[in-house]
Amino acid sequence: MLDLNSRILVFGGGGTIGSSTALHLARKGYRNIRVLDVYPIPSAQSAGNDLNKIMGTSLRNPVDRQLSLEAEDAWSNDPTFTAYYHRSGRLDCCGSPDGIEDLENTIAKLKDAGLGHTVEWLDTEAQIIRRVPQLAGSNIQGWKGIFFEQGGWLAAAKAIDLVGRELVRHGVQFSFGDSGTFQSLILSNDGKTCLGATTKDGTRYIADRVVLASGAWTPSLVDLEDQCCSKAWVYAHMQLTSEEIKEYAGCPVVYNEDLGFFFEPDEHGIIKVCDEFPGFTRYKMHQPFGTPEPKLVSVPRSHARHPTDTYPDASETTIKKAIAAFLPKFKDKELFNRAMCWCADTADANLLICEHPRWKVCIFLSQDFQDA
Which DSSP string corresponds to 316-331? Predict the structure, then answer.
């Protein structure tokens, strides 16, 4: 059992899950927490270091539902987060038979969970436009939708930055650069207990708990026995004029599982557009800690280290297809800041939160941000 003086390492602590873990431990009174990351908070390699993320309730399983309800409460009431929760509403919509069936299944799950009263089924194009007037003139014939009044989006990078500032006030220690880059675990003589970790510069940190919340990088750092896979999703930005900003201000998040999604413009008039697909992988021979020999692992390519990287040509086609469908008036706008967003994915899309079965006191927290 831990006490408030126990030494805790949080790798990937510059990202969403890692910084949140450190924050909640610090708020509970733990006094010996060290956050480690390649980059300072908000980490340039974090999927959460982004303009925005979709906010909504997950019904995938009871644990996800409870976590998302607690998150909703925190974003709504915690002073650290409230300013970054934009309750614009959210429209989940689709026009394909499979997509409409998925929407109908979602409605059934919401009703079973006692949340049916929190959403509205939209059966016609007119009903959709009533909820999202900005879709008038878009190619939405045959679409059905679910409108989430309480949904919206989060100013992700700004929130992580403020978490970092609060961690400083709590006295959390930080190691960035080579001294915050994971190299290996320190194990007991019998190889069954994690005693700490070594970083790229050779620093040895002894700890009572080691938390790896390194997102897409975790499967290439430590052997996760194929429980997680690193995948990349893509996005691009568009700049609106002052008049267009006024028109789209307060627009609900629009998500279409066949096409992609977009957000209202931020304070600088930038709209982020994403396509929707299963994600790119980048397999190569690699040897994570704990594997006897190199194996095929999907290894992220850091945009922070390769800032001129954009995304594959196929993604330009699919993003423009999405824009033509739900933002047709912007189909000729110039796209910029094209990028790939790396996340950790699992076979069933559930989170991986557990102690490693081979090494006691080594905890893994996976994260899945397909809303890039």
Answer: HHHHHHHHHHH-GGGT
